[in-house]
UniProtKB/TrEMBL annotation:
GO MF terms held by the record: acyltransferase activity, transferring groups other than amino-acyl groups
Pfam families assigned to the protein according to its UniProt record, in alphabetical order: Acetyltransf_10
Organism this protein belongs to: Bacteroides oleiciplenus YIT 12058
Full protein name: N-acetyltransferase domain-containing protein
InterPro entries: Acyl_CoA_acyltransferase (IPR016181), GNAT_dom (IPR000182), N-acetyltrans/Recomb-assoc (IPR052564)
Record CDD domains: NAT_SF
PANTHER family: ACETYLTRANSFERASE (PTHR43451:SF1), ACETYLTRANSFERASE (GNAT) FAMILY PROTEIN (PTHR43451)
Domain N-acetyltransferase: 6-159
């Protein structure tokens, strides 16, 4: 179900604690069907790198989606070369159009900046969503979280 009543704004450094908690809670709840508990905890530990998150917010087009009460319910970020760095939707807002909303904002940014192709490394859980939005799997791969190597997919879409 699409809901275009969501709002968005650029993320700020003050959002980091909330983003970190949402990231970890989403992984531990939503992604547990596709990854082992050990993989989830290793992946979640990547959210402990506050400086990395600060760098992404400072250097990328990094936006947060807000609900009617202006609470953060998701985020995405895209690099100037079209690499979709991140996309997470709050565990309580799955299947409510938030990911579609965020992806449309990232794609609008790419079109506005004449970026012809968006690429991303997409987890097993998100792969069907991205395929439904015309992203194609280029290859399956193993990517290191902190210690473990997790399966994901290099995907792309030509705009």
């Amino acid at each position: 179900m699409e809901n275009r009543n969501y709002k968005f704004r650029k993320a700020t450094l003050a959002d980091i604690p909330e983003l970190k908690e949402m990231y970890k809670a989403t992984l531990r709840t939503i992604n547990k069907a596709d990854y082992t508990p050990e993989e989830i905890e290793d992946w979640a530990s990547c959210g402990d790198d506050i400086q990395h998150l600060a760098d992404l917010i400072t250097n990328l087009y990094f936006i947060v989606a807000l609900n009617e009460e202006d609470l953060i319910i998701g985020f995405t970020s895209i690099q100037k070369d079209g690499y979709l760095q991140s996309m997470f939707v709050h565990k309580d807002y799955q299947h409510r159009g938030v990911a579609s909303f965020l992806l449309s904002m990232a794609e609008e940014y790419a079109i506005k900046h004449q970026i012809p192709i968006i690429t991303s490394e997409v987890c097993i859980t998100a792969k069907p969503f991205f395929e439904s939005k015309d992203y194609k799997v280029m290859r399956e791969q193993k990517r290191k979280a902190n210690i473990l190597f997790l399966t994901n997919y290099w995907m792309k879409k030509e705009l």
